[in-house]
């Protein structure tokens, strides 16, 4: 049975192409949603961009016919702008405040009541990224769903970038003697490019080794970089050593790191970046950036120039640089950065339109980026550059993203079969015993 899908504003602002995501069913957009999109179109962020994209899509579709009467979509479905939201009586009995959310609910409820009278019955489904909206719809007896079309078929625990294999003790000895093993021993494991294997001896569980799968050569290679110290930083656990291995490998151009706060993602990436730019001079510059999304209530406009405005958002990066560079004051740190002339801390807002060649690029808090933003960033990467994307997919501050629908998860899933990419999920918090306990309990 075909369905009628009523789209909330949050769905269109999340994915402008959601108009075409419901097959040959009917898509209904309440008129009040158009008003809300109109209010967002002048914003300079991704929300504004998506609002303008929705407007362009609807403008193209209206060339067929009046949108209020309905138009055919390329996938066989139909699209209609519904003007029925003024009939508020059925919703007002439970939610009497006249606001945009309740008007959208009124459209869905009125359509549902109309469908019950129609000979050709269609179930009505409200699609919304707003959890409260879905709860209110449920209380009115309206079927409601999250927008699932762009959910990644990927579970946070599924692909960590490494796996443990129990092998005979002599294989661990052979691994150390030869500096690696042929992958013929692990054919059934279905290893992905640059995936790590933690070899553990069956007879002696404490006897172990770490190797990286080189798919092109068909070899499990021993660590080249992960066991060493760089800028005073050495991997404290297996995950950190694996991360250093791929961060310092020039053949791997895209590295993704996920994990809880305090697992060392930022510190390791900065240490590797300094090693490659300042010591080895492989890259001309270390570019560090992050999305500017507040946690909790925003502090409003900030005084000063661009660097002064940016400081509160990138302070965690400065904290790590103070540790790596051994400075004890902000003034000394800034003097050191100016003297090195190889570190640039930039707002992510300004990366659009740029081409970034021969640079070591670090994007922190990448879980707050959408698929479109992450594509924009990676397509800026020029010849000879390396990019590191990191974040905690369980701590997302963007209103329309979650752990299964964000740019970082999207990239991990799309690039896990590529030789140029590697991923590591951190489990162990190394900041302090208290931080580890808090991460586990809270």
Automatic annotation (TrEMBL):
Cited Pfam families: PhoH (PF02562), PIN_4 (PF13638)
Its cellular-component GO annotations read: cytosol
Q: Which CDD domains match?
A: PIN_VapC_PhoHL-ATPase
Question: Residues in domain PIN?
Answer: 3-135
- Name this polypeptide is given: PhoH family protein
- Organism from which the protein derives: Alkaliphilus oremlandii (strain OhILAs) (Clostridium oremlandii (strain OhILAs))
Organism classification, top ranks? Bacteria, Bacillati, Bacillota, Clostridia, Peptostreptococcales
- Molecular function in Gene Ontology: ATP binding
InterPro entries on file: P-loop_NTPase, PhoH, PhoH2-like, PIN-like_dom_sf, PIN_dom
Q: Which family does it belong to?
A: In the N-terminal section; belongs to the PINc/VapC protein family.
Q: Which keywords does the record carry?
A: ATP-binding, Nucleotide-binding
């Amino acid at each position: 049975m075909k369905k009628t899908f009523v789209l909330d504003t949050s769905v269109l602002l999340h994915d402008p192409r959601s108009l075409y995501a419901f097959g040959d069913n009917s898509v209904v957009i309440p008129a009040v949603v158009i008003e809300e999109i109109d209010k967002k179109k002048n914003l300079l962020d991704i929300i504004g961009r998506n609002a303008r994209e929705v407007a362009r899509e609807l403008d193209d579709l209206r060339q067929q016919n009046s949108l209020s009467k309905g138009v055919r979509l390329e996938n066989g479905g139909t699209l209609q702008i519904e003007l029925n939201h003024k009939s508020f009586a059925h919703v007002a009995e439970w939610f009497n405040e006249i606001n945009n959310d309740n008007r959208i609910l009124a459209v869905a409820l009125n359509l549902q009541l109309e469908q019950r009278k129609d000979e050709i019955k269609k179930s009505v489904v409200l699609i919304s990224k707003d959890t409260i909206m879905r709860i209110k719809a449920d209380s009115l007896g309206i079927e409601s769903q999250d927008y699932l079309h762009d959910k990644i078929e990927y579970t946070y625990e599924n692909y960590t970038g490494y796996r443990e294999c129990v092998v005979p003790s002599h294989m661990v000895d052979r691994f150390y003697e030869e500096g690696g093993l042929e992958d013929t021993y692990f054919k059934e494991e279905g290893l992905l490019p640059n995936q790590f294997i933690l070899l553990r001896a069956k007879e002696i569980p404490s006897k172990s080794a770490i190797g990286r799968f080189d798919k092109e050569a068909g070899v499990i290679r021993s660590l080249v970089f992960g066991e060493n110290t760089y800028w005073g930083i050495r991997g404290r656990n297996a995950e950190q050593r694996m991360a250093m291995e791929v961060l310092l490998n020039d053949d791997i151009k895209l590295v993704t790191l996920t994990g809880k706060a305090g697992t060392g993602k930022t510190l390791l990436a900065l240490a590797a970046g300094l090693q490659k730019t300042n010591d080895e001079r492989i890259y001309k510059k270390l570019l560090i950036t992050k999305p500017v999304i507040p946690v909790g209530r925003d502090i409003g406009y900030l005084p000063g120039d661009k660097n002064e405005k940016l400081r509160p958002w990138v302070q965690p990066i400065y904290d790590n640089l103070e540790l790596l560079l051994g400075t004890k004051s902000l003034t000394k740190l800034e003097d050191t950065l100016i003297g090195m002339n190889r570190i640039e801390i930039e707002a992510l807002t300004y990366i659009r339109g740029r081409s970034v060649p021969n640079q070591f690029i670090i994007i922190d808090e990448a879980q707050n980026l959408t698929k479109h933003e992450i594509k924009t960033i990676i397509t800026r990467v020029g010849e000879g550059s390396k990019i590191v994307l990191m974040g905690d997919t369980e701590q997302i501050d963007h209103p329309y993203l979650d752990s299964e629908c964000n740019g970082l998860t999207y990239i991990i899933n799309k690039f896990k079969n590529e030789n140029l990419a590697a991923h590591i999920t951190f489990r162990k918090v190394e900041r302090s015993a208290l931080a580890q306990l808090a991460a586990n309990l809270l």
